[in-house]
Amino acid sequence: MSTTTSTTPTTSTPPTPSVTVAAPVVPTTGALTPLGLDEVRITDGFWADRQRVNGTATLPHVEHWLEREGWLRNFDLAAAGTLPEGRRGREFADSEVYKYLEAVAWELGRLGGDEALESRFRAIVDRVAAAQEADGYVNTRFGRPGQGERWSDLEWGHELYCLGHLFQAAVARERTSPGSDDGLLGIATRAADLICEVFGTDGIQSVCGHAEVEVGLAELSRVTGEPRYLELASLFVERRGTGVLQDIEWGRAYFQDDVPIREAEALRGHAVRANYLAAGATDIAVEQSDAGLLDALRGQWDRTIARRTYLTGGQGSHHQDEAFGEDFELPSDRAYSETCAGIASIMFSWRLLLEDRDVRYADHIERVLYNVVATSPSAAGTAFFYANTLHQRTPGESSPDDEVSPRASSSERAPWFDVSCCPPNVARTLASLAAFVATSDDRGVQIHQFASAAIDTVIGGEHGGRFRAELVTDYPRSGVVTMRIVEAPSGPVTVSLRVPSWADDAVVTVRPVDGEPTDRAVTPGYADVERSFVPGDVVELAFSVRPRVTLPDPRVDAIRGSVAIERGPEVYCVESVDLPGGDEAIARIEVGEGVVPVEDADGRLSIELRTRSLPDTAWPYGDAFAGSGPDETFTASIAPYHSWAERGPSTMRVWIPIARA
Ligand SMILES: [Zn+2]
Question: Which of 80, 254, 476, 489 could potentially form a cystine with 250 if both were Cys, beta carbons 3.0 to 4.6 Å apart?
């Protein structure tokens, strides 16, 4: 592919502000239009429960810790002119405040308003506003006497990264509360105007060490119609990969400054940085109709999913630099799989889904939602996994409720971290989740994720008009999803329901109010039902979520000869609390070839396991490893991976070795 990419973006036609949709990503063009939080409301079930916990427990928890750790107070000190004395937190602490504001903006949109939450939101915006300088600069770590100069540490300073989160927060607010007088959008545009000058074509020819400002600028451009923001995002994307940042011990791949984005073949380096960059680059490619860039990004997504992604959908297998490994380098016990990397992967995939209407992106989003996003927070919503290992060898250490965990790779969920990117990232994702459920196009409505939900939207196009429907499902417990039409435009409308890649027996049934039901078998992809719907018509998608045994590509050496159990979208795991041999037995369990998981009437799964009793030897290698005693065979419960470590410290594994005959 050509390397002579113009660094002057083509913006002959400035983007017009997108019609207000209460969703995180609203492209001006593409195959699908997202439906916002006021158009899709999740009403019941797996995700409704988590949204409720997120709103009632996680959001207050995050605000409490932002206050307690002084990360909010940093803004007060900036306004008072007393920094750097008293500043607390890492260089990127401001970003957690912005991510929290974004989460609250979505939550207010989801609830349709809440007086107490609204006033808390405004109070924090006021504190940020007071810290903004006259020229638009806002950051509590740089630019004052005794601090580093502005933009003096692009590799590690995170100034632009923090602004990216500020922009996303302002976008969330403007889309859920258009024209609000709280001032957040003004803070964002003043900061964006400043960086257009500082980093524009005549400015500093470099980028931020942590991508994120690109997605923020692209969406801010979509909200305001300001083309310069998109142009700057494009400059950042094109500059990266040309060696504009200092080389570091892990190499420039860490911040994707090793290869221009148009030439890269896979995501590499720091997994969150890589996915945020790819998401922002997708926004730019879409808005600028840049087919070459889009093709490069599709290729990177393909290769990354095919070779650099865990069964859970998690990404990143290097602890030291939180980075992708090489192709097929996916060891379970060293899985880093940062929660934020999963969320970032959803961001990248969702943008490609809106552009391409390719079901694979929606399948991956579901995998990450159930096995990374749902795994991170505790059931109570007040402790979080930062890293998401697939194999825990020794019981994790509990983190006290009132202490910051210094370790991102803490083996138990912790209430807060020294680097606490993940908790507010989970919060904003769950609060905005309804925006990832459904989309529309000129033909009808597409359902990408299954949840009981109320849909109320307007379909465009020739046969357009108001469309209302109720989705009812107990997914993932069952694979039956029922859509009842409440209102539909006259004339043909196409309802499309995603059939997951593993659903090999799916049937779609149409039950018209005034006619005989019809059904047909459908294959993975989108099952389209086109008809002139009348209120009361029902479309039902049904497929089995029976447990299945999954094998790895043998090139994933670390798990060669092992199996995993999945049921519907959920990956399962074995936990020591369910083993007779206790914590240590997790290392010795095996399954017989042809193992069949058994499901009881309550949907709980169990499998037959064998433990080998192995002698301790002076040297763990040799020509044979016979057991020292009789093998033990027993039936053990297995649990969804997202629920692991909820019953106290335990050892755990997702992949189980197959017993040698
Ligand atoms: Zn994180």
Answer: 254
DSSP letter for 55, please. Answer: I
651 closest CA partner among 583, 588, 590: 583
**Rounded to the nearest whole angstrom, what is the distance from the C-alpha of residue 326 to the centroid of ligand 1?**
21
Q: How far is the CA of 393 from the centre of ligand 1 (A)?
A: 23
The pLDDT score that the predictor gives to residue 8 is: 39
Residues with Cβ within 8 Å of 550's Cβ and at least 6 positions away in sequence, in order, are: 311, 563, 564, 565, 566
Ligand 1 midpoint to CA 190 (Å): 28
Distance 155 CA to ligand 1 centre (A): 18
Which residues have CB less than 5 Å away from ligand 1 (the ion)? Answer: 340, 421-422
pLDDT, averaged in runs of 10, over the chain (661 residues): 37 52 97 98 98 98 98 98 97 98 98 98 98 98 97 98 98 97 98 98 98 98 98 98 97 98 98 98 98 98 98 97 97 96 98 98 98 98 96 89 76 91 98 98 97 97 92 98 97 97 98 97 98 97 97 98 98 97 93 94 96 86 73 95 95 94 62
Cα–Cα distances in angstroms (integers) from residue 139 to residues 210, 463, 475, in the given order: 15, 50, 44
Q: Which residue type is seen at 404?
A: V
Q: Please give the distance, rounded to the nearest whole angstrom, from the Cα atom of residue 426 to the centre of ligand 1.
A: 9
Closest CA to 280 of 261, 253, 303: 261
Rounded to an integer, what is the distance from CA 152 to the centroid of its chain? 31
Of all residues in the chain, what percent carry a pLDDT higher than 70?
96
- How far, in Å, CA of 443 to CA of 580, rounded? 56
For residue 252, how far is its CA from the centre of ligand 1 (angstroms)? 20
- Please give the distance, rounded to the nearest whole angstrom, from the Cα atom of residue 341 to the centre of ligand 1: 7
Query: How confident is the prediction for the chain on average, in pLDDT?
Result: 94
What distance in angstroms lies between residue 212's CA and the mean position of ligand 1's atoms?
Answer: 13
Residues 6+ apart with CB under 8 A from 622: none
Distance 558 CA to ligand 1 centre (A): 25
Contact 430, 373 (CB under 8 A): yes
User: What is residue 408's predicted lDDT score, i.e. its pLDDT?
Assistant: 63
Distance 339 CA to ligand 1 centre (A): 5
The answer to whether the CB of 307 falls within 8 A of the CB of 266 is: yes
254: number of CA atoms within 13 Å, CB side? Answer: 18
540 with 520: CB under 8 angstroms? no
| Residue 434 confidence (pLDDT) | 98
396 within 8 A of 410, measured Cβ to Cβ: yes
Q: How far apart are CA 405 and CA 389, in angstroms?
A: 17
Q: Which residues contact residue 486 at a Cβ distance below 8 angstroms, ignoring those fewer than 6 apart?
A: 468, 469, 470, 535
Q: What does the pLDDT look like over 316-351, one tens digit per residue?
A: 999 999 999 999 999 999 999 999 999 999 999 999
| Distance of CA 433 from the midpoint of ligand 1 (Å) | 18
Q: How do strand 493-499 and strand 444-447 relate by DSSP bridges? A: parallel
What's the 372 CA to ligand 1 centre distance in angstroms?
12
